[in-house]
């Protein structure tokens, strides 16, 4: 074209979690039964919505208001409900105007990073959930600035590394925290979150905290929401209903702004995000109307607790299957529903394979791994998918140089889950020995 139409950050927008689906679908056409362990959709993995929850949705759609626009910030009654919940549990106090609804957290993430000054950077964890790291990199037109999560220390943030990334990079204006973490499943101790807030305070930064999994914690671990710990630091906390209820297809998430009037520049930045949302008019009305009725239902807490106990059981099954496999580093998942596995340095090569019986599948996989830009962990993921049908995501796609993979813990059939992870463990052994 006569004029370059590409955004400066277009090359940073990648989402391997869904990219791998195209490969899996092609293999299904070739006769491979696929086990989709790549994406965090509880419904797709067999979770059934309880009838009482469906009844609330069915009753709400009888209300004409559910078909209309909501206010740009979101339904006022729902924002008042959320503010009251936050104020009852946290030290920070917010009002309904400190809450903005979005069409899922993907929409919120796009706005939060997209309306930063291009030269202002948010330091993100590595590994990092792709939507965050890609959005931050795209807004700046450069690779993400990252701080280390330590796989040798339960995937906890390395605070010394974080401070160095801040101290020696004056462009850093904010810190991203994901707690509980995706993709690692780590739950951060309170002292670590406090340490991150103190660094934001020390260097005059703001905090973005993704708490979409804050109520999905197990194996005896505990943490606290940022509202308990933020003190006077400006912050944006992200929450939603896609994982807890779970209703991912609702595309319903929101941000809570803490200490929004503490700094004039931060206040203006938040107003720019609100104005951008105003151009879209509003977010979808129905899930906003439904959310307070669902989470206050007498059966909701029991329902959520049952799901959490299942994730806890699956996390321990997965850990038991993989922990003694030579050549990998595995941490037990304690929150959310993901597990990240790291290959030890030097164990992967471009000569390793898994046996694939179907010749057409084998040729297709070989065509994929022969490409020059295929990382060593993606090579393993392709062979695993072709040989076993197990679809996981290469860890290197999560803004990290570590080689490994991320899998979900969402399979509802325990026998099938045990088989998947037993096959996964044996496949790793065979691949590394080949």
What is the CATH domain class of the largest domain? Alpha Beta
The total of beta strands comes to: 14
CATH fold title of the largest domain: Aspartate Aminotransferase, domain 2
What structural class results from the helix and strand content?
Answer: alpha/beta
Order of H and E elements: HEHHEHEHEEHEHEEEHHHEEHHEEEH
Give an overview in words:
- This protein is α/β, with parallel strands linked by helices and 434 residues long.
- It has 2 domains: 10-47 and 301-433, Aspartate Aminotransferase, domain 1 (Alpha-Beta Complex), CATH 3.90.1150; 63-295, Aspartate Aminotransferase, domain 2, CATH 3.40.640.
- The chain is built from 13 helices and 14 strands.
- It has helices at residues 16-29, 51-60, 76-89, 104-114, 130-140, 159-167, 190-202, 264-279, 285-295, 300-322, 359-369, 376-388, 414-433, and strands spanning 35-36, 99-102, 121-126, 146-150, 156-157, 172-178, 206-210, 235-240, 253-258, 328-330, 338-343, 390-391, 393-394, 404-408.
- Strands 2-9-8-7-6-3-4-5 form an 8-stranded mixed beta sheet, sandwiched between helices. A 4-stranded antiparallel beta sheet has the order 10-11-14-13. The protein has a two-stranded parallel sheet with strand order 1-12.
- A hairpin with a 7-residue loop joins strand 10 and strand 11 (338-343).
- The longest helix has 23 residues, at 300-322.
- It is globular and about 60 Å long.
- It starts with 15 loop residues before the first helix and ends with a helix.
- The model has no long low-confidence stretch (mean pLDDT 91).
């Amino acid at each position: 074209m006569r004029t370059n139409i590409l955004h400066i950050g277009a090359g940073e927008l990648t989402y391997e979690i869904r990219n791998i689906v195209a490969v899996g679908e092609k293999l299904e056409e070739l006769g491979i039964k696929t086990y989709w362990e790549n994406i965090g959709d509880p419904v797709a993995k067999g979770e059934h919505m309880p009838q009482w929850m469906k009844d609330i949705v069915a009753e709400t759609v009888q209300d004409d208001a559910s078909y209309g626009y909501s206010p740009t910030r979101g339904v006022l009654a729902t924002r008042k409900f959320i503010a009251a919940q936050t104020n009852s549990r946290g030290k920070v106090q917010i009002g309904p105007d400190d809450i903005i609804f979005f069409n899922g957290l993907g929409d919120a993430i796009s706005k939060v990073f997209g309306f930063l000054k291009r030269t202002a950077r948010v330091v993100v964890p590595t590994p990092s959930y792709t939507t965050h790291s890609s959005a931050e990199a795209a807004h700046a037109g450069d690779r993400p600035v990252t701080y280390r999560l330590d796989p040798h220390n339960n995937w906890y943030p390395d605070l010394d590394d974080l401070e160095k990334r801040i101290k020696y990079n004056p462009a850093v204006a904010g810190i991203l925290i994901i707690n509980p973490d995706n993709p690692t499943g780590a739950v951060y101790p309170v002292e670590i979150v406090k340490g991150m807030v103190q660094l934001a305070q020390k260097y005059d930064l703001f905090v973005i905290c993704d708490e979409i999994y804050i109520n999905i914690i197990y194996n005896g671990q505990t943490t606290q929401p940022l509202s308990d710990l933020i003190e006077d630091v400006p912050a944006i906390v992200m929450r939603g209903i896609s994982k807890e209820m779970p209703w991912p297809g609702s595309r319903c998430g929101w941000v809570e702004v803490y200490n929004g009037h503490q700094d004039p520049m931060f206040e203006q930045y938040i107003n720019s995000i609100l104005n951008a949302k105003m151009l879209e008019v509003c977010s979808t009305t129905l899930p906003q109307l439904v959310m307070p009725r669902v989470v206050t239902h007498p059966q909701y807490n029991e329902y959520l607790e049952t799901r959490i106990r299942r994730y806890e059981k699956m996390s321990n099954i997965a850990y038991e299957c993989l922990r003694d496999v030579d050549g990998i580093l595995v941490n037990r998942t304690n929150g959310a529903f993901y597990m990240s596995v790291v290959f030890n340095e030097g164990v992967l090569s471009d000569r390793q394979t898994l046996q694939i019986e179907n010749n057409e599948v084998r040729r297709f996989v070989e065509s994929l791994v022969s490409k020059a830009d295929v990382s060593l962990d993606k090579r393993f993921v392709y062979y695993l998918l072709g040989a076993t049908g197990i679809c996981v995501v290469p860890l290197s796609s999560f803004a990290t140089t570590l080689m490994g993979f991320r899998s979900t813990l969402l399979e509802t059939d325990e026998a099938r889950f045990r088989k998947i992870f037993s096959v996964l463990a044996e496949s790793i052994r065979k691949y590394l020995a080949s």
